[in-house]
Amino acid sequence: MRLTLAAIGKMKAGPEQELAARYLDRLRKAGPPLGLDFAGVVELPESRFSTVMERKRDEASRLQAALPEGCRFIVLDETGKTPSSEDFAADLATIRDEGLRDLALVIGGPDGLSDEMRKSALRVLAFGRLTFPHQIVRILLAEQLYRAATILSGHPYHRS
């Protein structure tokens, strides 16, 4: 299964970008033997529409258009469920084993994601009820994807 990270907002050069890249590089190496191929990052600029609803709709439309045909997606949203790392890894394995070819993990913009995008998502996940900057969410997601690969492979990186 090909994994794509899709986000509204661009990571600027600096330590945050380097840390996210480090975990995504680890995922690129650890994932393929497990059937988890990292396809890359899709970054889209924030919408310039004047209202929140228009911005959310515009960003959702552009995110979905940027994903591969037939791609399903998981969205990161503060209203989502907060699984354990083991549950997240098991869920990725289940989705992979069901034969899905492309899965995207989507991070919305500062206004969040549209209701339509959340409703059409395969899953809605949260890293807790706190609000985090885009850069930190991207680092957390990159690390959790790598951690999921290590859990599925039995690697000792994750200690439960």
TrEMBL record:
Q: What is this protein called?
A: Ribosomal RNA large subunit methyltransferase H
Q: Which coarse location class applies to the principal site listed for this UniProt protein?
A: cytoplasm
The record's catalysed reaction(s) read: pseudouridine(1915) in 23S rRNA + S-adenosyl-L-methionine = N(3)-methylpseudouridine(1915) in 23S rRNA + S-adenosyl-L-homocysteine + H(+)
Name a GO molecular-function annotation.
Answer: rRNA (pseudouridine-N3-)-methyltransferase activity
**Entry's family note:** Belongs to the RNA methyltransferase RlmH family.
Q: Which gene encodes it?
A: rlmH
* CDD domains hit by this protein: RlmH-like
Q: Which UniProt keywords apply?
A: Cytoplasm, Methyltransferase, rRNA processing, S-adenosyl-L-methionine, Transferase
Q: What's the Enzyme Commission number for this chain?
A: 2.1.1.177
Sites where the protein binds S-adenosyl-L-methionine:
L76, G108, F127, G128, R129, L130, T131, F132
Query: Subcellular location, in the record's words?
Result: Cytoplasm
**What domain of life does the UniProt record list for this protein's source?**
Bacteria
Free-text function comment from the UniProt entry: Specifically methylates the pseudouridine at position 1915 (m3Psi1915) in 23S rRNA.
Q: Which GO terms describe its cellular component?
A: cytoplasm
Q: Summarize the subunit comment.
A: Homodimer.
